[in-house]
Amino acid sequence: MNHTLIATEALRYRLVTLADGADPSVHCPSFDVAEAGERAVRSAHPAIDRAIRLLGTAWVQAGLPPARLIEPWNGEAVDALFADRPDLVDAIDDIAAALTLSV
Q1: Is there a contact between 25 and 4 (Cβ–Cβ < 8 Å)?
Q2: What is the rounded distance in angstroms from the CA atom of residue 1 to the CA atom of residue 99?
Q3: 20 to 30 Å CA-CA from 102: which of 4, 33, 47, 71?
């Protein structure tokens, strides 16, 4: 599975939650989510690796198709997963925090 694409979709999902469901590019047009996902994985920060493993494991355990990890995260099943597992939001925040350390 492509860790860069997982990190990108995780960051995109988090931005959507912070924008109350709106397209994050409207509120942050200069922020390139794909570039951020790439930089995150390239940094090889242990917190990012841990977060990606946690997200992937929880995703599969929830019965979501692994192939959807690299597509935009939306829908009732995804929302239920994050509602049931607030630690997953923390994991995405760990990606963002580690990303800022690698800049």
Answers
A1: no
A2: 20
A3: 71
> Which pLDDT score, from 0 to 100, does residue 23 have?
66
Report whether pLDDT(103) > 60.
no
Q: How far apart are CA 88 and CA 78, in angstroms?
A: 11
Q: In terms of C-beta distances under 8 Å and separation of at least 24 residues, what long-range contacts does 78-82 make, across chains too?
A: 78/13, 82/13, 82/17
- Quick one: DSSP state of residue 85? -
What is the value of pTM for the model shown?
0.89
Tokens of 45: 């920060």
Q: What Cα–Cα distance (Å) separates residue 87 from each residue in 3, 58, 74, 94?
A: 19, 10, 18, 10
Cα–Cα distance for residue pair 89/103, rounded to 1 Å: 22
| Percent of residues, the chain, with pLDDT higher than 70 | 90
Residue type, 3: H
